[in-house]
Amino acid sequence: MSSLDKTFAGESVVITGGSRGLGRALGRALAGAGARVVLVARHAEPLRAVVEEIRAAGGEAHGVVADVADVDAAAAIAGQAAALAGPIDVLINNASTLGPVPLRLLLDTDCEDLDRALAVNVVGPFRLTKAIAGSMVLRGGGAIVNITSDAATEAYPTWGAYGASKAALEQLGRIWAAELEGTGVRVLTVDPGEMDTVMHADAIPEADRTQLGDPARVAERIVGLLADASRGGAGGHVSVSGDGAPAGAS
Ligand SMILES: NC(=O)c1ccc[n+]([C@@H]2O[C@H](COP(=O)([O-])OP(=O)(O)OC[C@H]3O[C@@H](n4cnc5c(N)ncnc54)[C@H](OP(=O)(O)O)[C@@H]3O)[C@@H](O)[C@H]2O)c1
User: At what angle do helices 111-118 and 160-180 cross, to 10 degrees?
Assistant: First the structure.
């Protein structure tokens, strides 16, 4: 585990997409900082392996198998997570899909692929936020982290479904932040930069992986943002990367 202090002792954290990549790294880092983490993913076996890994290192972790795009998933995730780990203090909407792989020009993108990208990357996080934010408001505090991408703001050819979904996620984050102002609930929209993960390999198989960020270092920076109560509130895009300091808050 990367962190030995217990900044998040007693806090309950839900991380979607927790079985690999950034989600796994966030789970390890937050459990190392004392949080009770609930990891969500579709495939049970990799999820179980990460839960075991965290427990073996002395942390508390639980797995919930679910597809965030399913209409019924949000209530099931929120209910199971609260039963396993207590009232949720932090929700990290990290699970994501690229849309069509290989990436395609919009002219070649099926409407169903756009639908799926929106369901996983926008509507799923929206449902889960709705299912959890109310109890945060009642308890007077909490944090919601939406993991975004520079594809939300840059018009990269072939990244249309993914980019449009991340742009919508970001705008919802800004509006959530405006509507939750004064409740004690923070909303952070965090761009992790390019990382060496399965998603990146699916998107750009020819990339030089030695030039990509380490999800563990990115996770440490996101945990640092979460631990800093002055960060968040406006819900604007914050860039972090495995190599540099947090930058670009808006
Ligand atoms: N990697 C990069 O360079 C990069 C750059 C910018 C932004 N990001 C963002 O960073 C976040 C993490 O990406 P990553 O690279 O770590 O991805 P990753 O390695 O592909 O991991 C994705 C995780 O999400 C889970 N997942 C995927 N679809 C799901 C669904 N419908 N329901 C529940 N869980 C689902 C996967 O497990 P299952 O398959 O078992 O469900 C896995 O645990 C994403 O939001 C991504 O958009 C990544």
Answer: 30
Q: Is residue 222 within 8 Å of 179, Cβ to Cβ?
A: no
3-state class percentages of the chain: helix first, strand second, coil last, to nearest 5 = 45, 15, 40
Name the residue ranges covered by the structural domains of the chain. Answer: 12-239
State in Å: Cα 98 to ligand 1 middle: 9
The answer to whether the beta carbons of residues 242 and 193 sit under 8 Å apart is: yes
Q: Looking at residue 245, what is its pLDDT? A: 42
User: Which residue's alpha carbon is nearest to atom 25 within ligand 1?
Assistant: 17
Residue in 214, 190, 215, 219 with CA at minimum distance from that of residue 3: 219
Q: Which of 12, 62, 69, 162 is catalytic?
A: 162
Local mean pLDDT, 10-residue blocks, the chain (250 residues): 74 98 98 98 98 98 98 98 98 98 98 98 98 98 97 98 98 97 96 98 97 97 92 81 49
Q: Are 140 and 87 in contact (CB under 8 A)?
A: no
For 12-239, which CATH superfamily applies?
Answer: NAD(P)-binding Rossmann-like Domain (3.40.50.720)
Is 156 catalytic? The answer is no
How far, in Å, CA of 235 to CA of 250, rounded?
A: 8
Distances (CA, A) of 162 to 35, 78, 109: 31, 25, 11
pLDDT at residue 237, as a whole number: 86
